């Protein structure tokens, strides 16, 4: 199945960057397009702003990178649904 998907889709090498605020500080986050799409859906469903979500991620990141923690939180949100 994965081979079929990869044959039909062009590789997505460009990872969009967005400026966000984390605890009031401006920074940039780079995620794959699929994660941005999932994040937009999550924000809309939960009625929270991107900056609020970033504050939430910051409180949970520990030693991991911010973008990795964002991916994990987005994935966890959709796994719980």
Annotation, overall tally of beta strands: 2
Shape: globular
Helix content: 55-70%
Q: Oligomerization state of this entry? A: single chain
* Gap between N and C termini: 24 Å
**In what order do the strands lie side by side in the largest sheet?**
1-2
Average residue pLDDT? 89
Instruction: Sketch the major β-sheet.
Output: 2 strands, antiparallel
- Label the structural class: alpha+beta
Walk me through the topology.
Blueprint: H1 2-8, E1 17-22, E2 25-30, H2 33-46, H3 50-60, H4 66-80
Antiparallel strand pairs: 1-2
List keywords for this structure.
81 residues; alpha+beta; two-stranded antiparallel sheet; 2 strands
Structure description:
The protein has 81 residues and is α+β, with helices and mostly antiparallel strands. Helix content is 58%, strand content 15%. The protein has four helices and two strands. It has a two-stranded antiparallel ribbon with strand order 1-2. A hairpin with a 2-residue loop joins β1 and β2 (25-30). α2 (33-46) crosses α4 (66-80) and α3 (50-60) packs across α4. The mean pLDDT is 89.
Brief account:
The protein is α+β, with helices and mostly antiparallel strands.
């Amino acid at each position: 199945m994965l081979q079929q998907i990869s044959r039909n889709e062009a590789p997505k090498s460009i990872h969009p960057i967005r400026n966000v605020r984390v605890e009031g500080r401006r920074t940039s986050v780079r995620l794959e397009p699929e994660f941005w799409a999932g994040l937009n859906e999550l924000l809309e469903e939960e009625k929270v702003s991107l900056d609020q979500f970033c504050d939430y991620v910051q409180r949970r990141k520990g030693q991991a990178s911010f973008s990795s923690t964002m991916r994990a939180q987005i994935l966890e949100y959709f796994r719980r649904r």
